[in-house]
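Quick log. Single chain, no ligands specified.
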Amino acid sequence: MEIKIISNIKNNLVMDIKDEDVSIPEIIRYELLKDNRVIFAGVSEQHPLLKKLTMRVQTKGIEPLDALISSFSKAIEKTSELLSEVNKALIKGGA
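-> predicted structure:
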C-alpha cells in the first residue's frame, strides 16, 4: 500500500491510496463518520483495474490527520475485539 497526501488545507485532507482495495479505507471511513467533528469522509475508487483510491476527510475543530489517526485506533480496537470473539467461538465449538 502506498499513500500520498494530495492536499491538507483548512480542515480538508485529500489523499491517494495505491495498491489497496476499498475494504480497509471503508472501515476507516465508517469510524471517521462516528466522530461529530468530522463533516465528511469519503472513499472513491478511480478505476477497479488501477487499484487506486482517493480518500477525503473534512473536519471542524480537529485536524483531519488527527481524526484519521483516531479512527485507525478505533478500527484496530474493533478488529481485536472481533478476533477475540472468533477465537472464543472456535475454542467453544471445538475447532
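Strands lie at 2-9, 12-18, 38-47, 52-59.
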